[in-house]
Amino acid sequence: MGMKSWTRYRLVRWVAGRGPLAWWAWWRLIRAGDRGDTEVIDEVWDLWLSEPHARLWIALERWHRPRTGGGASLVALGSQASVEEVVAAAALYGSHPVAVAARARILAGPQELVDAACEAEWLAAFCVEHRLAPADPHRAAVFFLLTGQREQYHAVDPDHSLLAVAYQGADASERSRVLTMAAGHPDLARVLADTVRRGRLARLSQREAEYLAGAFARQRDWTGMWELTRSLPVLDAVAAVRRFDGWRPEGPDAALFDALAAADPDELTRAHRAVVTPWTVSARGTVTGGSFAPDGRRMAFTTVTSVDMVTLPSGVTEHWPASHHSEVLVLDGAALLISRWDHAASGLSNGTAGPAVFLRTVAFGRTPDGFAALTLGEERRPRLHLMTGSGPDFHTYDQRVLDVRTELGIPAGFAHPSWTMASEPVRGRIAIAGNDLHLVEVTGDGLRRLATVPFVSGPGSRLSFARPDRLLGVDDTRMLRLWRADGAEPRLVAERQLSGASMADLPGAGVVAVIDPARRVRYLDGETLADLGLPGGFEYMATSLFASPDGTRLAVGHNGFVEVLDVALAALADRPLAATTPADLHMLRTRLDGDSPFVELLHICLAHRFGVDVALGDPGPVHARDDDIALGEPA
Amino acid sequence: MTARIGIDFGTANTVVARWDEARGRGEPVPLDGIDLTRSGGGVRQRVVPSLLAYSNTGTQRWLGAQVVDRFADPDVTVFQSTKSNVTGRAVDIPRAVGSRRITAREAATQFLGDVTALAVLAVGADDLEVVATAPVETFDTYRDWLVGEVGAGIGAARLRVVDEATAAAVGYSARMSPGDVFCVFDFGAGTLDVSVVRVEDAGGAGAGVRSIAKVGLDLGGNHVDALLAEHVAAETGLCHGDPVTFNQVFRPLLIAAEAAKVELTHAARSTVATTDPVSGREYRTEVTRSRFERLLRDKDVLGRANRALRRALEGAAAKGYPADGFAGVFLVGGTSLIPAVRDLVNLQFEPELVHLDRPLEAVAAGAAGIAGGRELHDHIQHDYAIRHVDARTGTYEYEVLVEAGTAYPTQEPVRSITIKAIHPAQQRMGIAVYELAHATSGADLEIVFDALGGARTVAVTPQHRQERSTLWLNEDSPTFLTADPPAAAGVDRFRLDFRIDAQKRLTVSAFDLERRTWVLAGHPVVQLA
Asked: How many Å apart are CA B250 and CA B233, to the nearest integer?
């Protein structure tokens, strides 16, 4: 049994003193350490690292055992230590011997140690004194600038090109520090402005925009400033255009300049806030799911007791009671409900619910000419109901019922318990998942299997087929997978572990929304599923997610309300104009309703940028001219 | 009397040649005091080192051979390798000379203007026709600089610009017979150009050449010098953490590396050495030829040169001119003197076909030949494309209109396409034409001179290479078609016929499919290279 903690504490401190007590304590500590009492050894390390008493070091050297957890003790003993441990020891211990040893290691050490030291703010003076710099030229350029070594900076990066590249990859805090150090470097401002013009910076802080515009204005470089202005996010462009001191571009750019100059900044800021802030619809209880109509202008959501249909953004227009954990799909002119209580699917219209259309329904989705529903019949045998028609009365629809197992040749006797389904409304292909995921198309004879990929459906599993080339699924282990589905065989392109099954695919905004373990909304990159972090606007704990069919609007269910955000428009609102694409203009045209001066101005900017673009005509024979002839059939 | 001269402004050497009517070929013009003779291919050749120096008082300047011994003079600012600054690819940091700040581009203009003026004096003619050369890969930029800035200073002389590869081919064509096909492997200090050409009978004017295949790379002797200097810097522990000192030492290391490279063409070993002017520390490494050649292999210099050569040969073979039918292969440029480079070429051809004949003078001699009337049949050097929006993704795509290797002028359209509006009631439809370079063949490093005269290499990022790979040619003067009545989105509206005229311009004729009428006829869009 080791010493009690108070004994250890007192002994270690007595050792550092004088007289017989010190020697007695020394003797006891040595014996305990020799026995391998790690608590004693750790206590000695702790005191020595705060007060480097020589007698304590003699004991530590004698034991030659690092403190539990390693850290600076490894550096002091000359043992193998990680880069982080060496740098921390060098940075945090002032003139302590362990810092001296760590710094000696850095001076003698491999370049990765030097690189890490240059990243540590507390070691900046040490690195400057010893002419240390990161090996990567981009990092070196930033390092020289941030450490005030202007001559060295100019020598390594005479045209600021290294810094421009580094700046693109830097986080907000480093960018802010670079801007501070860049004050008085007009050339640097020009280079950073160039990165904006080339659309390389996805986001620009207000301080960056102000700094860059201010740098050009001080130089009275109006042409350069105009180039920058038309590349900035719209709000920043409106602010920048007021700095031109009477200058105005000529030619087609003049109209754009005038439009920016005529905008009322306060009114524009309010309109911008309305675009980037979700609007809220109240709900009766916890929102469990929902659906947007194909045109995105209506939305239905389910709570544990009801289904509400909402016309956006005016408010609730219809309300139906329902049993808990229902699901809903909004079609043109009607809603379709699945009640989880009895798995009956019913049509909803004009404030009333029609009789059940199917029983034991597990999923449904839109098809080019109606909708499809997957039901589990006796012995959990999956059946696909293909409903062709329109309007609120589902009994007027033509119905085909296909036995999935028979159609796909799944052996009899195998009854997978959980099935799910998604359909894509353009080409009409359907993804059905049980023990595998089957991609099928509907033919006159039934289902034709196009491909089968590994995927096990479990309780709560979801599939999304928002676009013909994008198939997403969350399997029974909560693994999110993205397949490229435009070829014959779905090709897995990315996967990511989730904590829950909720996900909403938003290809129109380039993201996938998911709910993280803290029940906050997170965005994943739409192509790689890489985490993009927490989007602004959604402050409350989420209970469900759903997306509009065009993949641009996101609805987030909460306890008592739903938040709806036009994600594509919100992302475009803050994007530098230089980073926009012709597709953004196309999307924006669908948002023009005359209500938002911000959207109107954004549209003017994008129309100026992309308004003269063309598409190629159909390949093949070029249109015949009036004087062209065709050969007749040979005689 | 009319004098016809050719000028080859090289990264390391510049040569001026005059058309000798009697001998039927271009001959170097002696420029006493500023030229010198350099050994290459077993013969002494007359060149002007591409160097310009200013006294730091700003009152005096020196040219060519006058500069060679002034590198170490602290009171003199020397500009070298200025050719790479003309394209704007290598960063051009102004340097303080007296009370002025001079860019390398300005120095290049001054240098070439001075050389041309001295050449005019030397030939003593009252009428002058000048043909200057420009690299294949950056032809447009050089041509604009030569005509707009250098040409402005040579008075009434007529100035034409041809690409270096073609000039070299013309330089050798005098020794060929009509129908002969030969290859020119021009590996200079700045670029590598490989051309396969055919000699054609041009009637009374003598023979001319037609290009069959051409490949260019931003790779040259300067690149090799930089790699060797970097190797020495690493071997000797030149400190990257002190860029000011690094640059000050690296510049003389570059000069020493160039000297070692030349020495290693005939010697088994050489020493690269220089001294830090401040600390006095010496940086010295011995380099053997085998180590040097390993460096060229490891850094893919030989590999890239080999791939360029093979691409040119495959291009010629695809057009019916396989390498086994060549009448000769000519090595041009100082970098061709490196034994490993010569071996690389020798592996591809029968030994008796390969000639290393006056490699430093050939381009200027050919330019003089063109000035003297040797007919030139050129072709288009790059791919050119129209930008359009992919309706599915909403992103830009590029459709090739003219492929590299296309002969011109063309009577029939080189490409006919239809275009449609992408916006409702679109009135203006832009024709945006891009030059597509070979993004993968660009330089991977460049030498940059800082404001204090120091030098360092800078890596060219894939991002920059990508940006250089597409150049919007008519951004400043775009061509628009006006749709009246406005065009409906997604409906074919105009048929466009593209042709290349005798001035090497891309022209467009546009037929309005709705109104059934021609709205443009042979309208020039961009100048091609």
From this structure: 8
